[in-house]
Amino acid sequence: MQNDKNMKIKIGLAEMLKGGVIMDVTTPEQAKIAEEAGAVAVMALERIPADIRAHGGVARMSDPTVIRAIQKTVSIPVMAKCRIGHFAEAQVLEALGVDFIDESEVLTPADEEFHVDKWKFKVPFVCGCRNLGEALRRIAEGAAMIRTKGEAGTGNIVEAVRHMRAVQGGIRRIQGLGDEELVTEAKNLGAPVELVREVKKLGKLPVPNFSAGGVATPADASLMMQLGAETVFVGSGIFKSSDPVKMSKAIVTAVTHYMDFKLIAKVSAGLGEAMRGLEMGAIPEEERMAGRGW
Amino acid sequence: MQIGVLAVQGDFSKHQDMLRQMGIESQLVRTPAVLSKCDGLIIPGGESTTLTTVMQKHGLWQPLQEFGRRKVIFGTCAGLIIMANEVPGHPHATLDLIDITVERNAYGRQVDSFIDKVKLELSGASSVVEGVFIRAPKIKACGTSVRILGYHRQDIVAAENEHILVCTFHPELTGDERLHRYFLHKVSRHIHD
Fold first, then answer.
1. In chain B, N or C: fewer CB atoms in 10 Å?
2. Catalytic annotation on B38?
3. Do B46 and A122 touch (CB under 8 A)?
4. B147 lies in which domain range?
């Protein structure tokens, strides 16, 4: 898979984003704050997930005006989201020259059976997952980066932890299997056996594995890095906190130095209020975003 | 000989894998204390603004600049940008360790990233290698202290001076060891001088 030239270029950009923080922004001013804080990329959105959740209705791809204004303001990569299965939105985003497309459960799905065929695009895609099978299905469709779904817009890390543990646990399980057991494992995972073999060989996913959905503090970021994330997406956690400038810098530091707990203690002090957050029990099943995608 | 890989941000693990493939165990460098134990350093690809911001904030910038004046550093892509002496339009200071003028994202956005053949001229031997260019910069001009080591079409893509080796592409993503081997020779020559 890595031998495909186009895929190598796509995964290449994901490699460059490792050890960094990707921040959701809705205006050029926020994008500037993110870049100055040391973000490796920004996700250009009309509304951050917490507001999408509060607003309700159908959530779609952002207005190109918002994306263009942000592209003009920063020199770091600019990502944008399309709806699951909405390949026309993806084609529009590619035409806008975004650097990465997130086929995201945060937006309202356009197709309840099929995801976008990502091999057809020159622009790389990132997709969410809750477990190893889902991650491998997205990679089979051409995703160049995988992220945990977590539960976006909640400021609650519990789902991201669940999903990262499920992926890592699934990888460890495959490594303990005999070669003769891999076809059945692939069947159970609902994933192509070639990718299952590759995971056994590599001991990790064949594309970078990032974390998203619920990161609200520097310690949350460190937690996800220690659980095996290679970069952290922060959505609502920054611009829903009381001091976004300070919070964004603190989370960047916590990702770079995720094992330096004295330093994380220092940057965590006096950050003001983190986003208020939601207890999972308070979100009705039908309003949870992580269940979107198949 | 102790080789470090700057692990502030970027594809440092790919460089570490590459060195391991060549039989070298490297140190991940995140602090001045670890840096001071190294004889040579690699600054990986990544985001140059992030690398600069994080290093300036946590006291790694000055030590790195002093390191580069005395010891050998190999910078790929973002590593090249932060060591250049001039990057027009770049909002940050650079380490000013090699006399080259660099244009960031010179080929365009990610959809303009590409893989193509690169001609290298290392230690008198010519070779053609696969160059992976990801949102890559261009070297627009070189000072007299700089030797050109490689071209993609008309563009200079690899260069060096006494201590510093740079390239605009990513040898760490292809498994081709030539530039890394050249870097290791440069470090060992420097130690024995």
1. C
2. no
3. no
4. 3-192
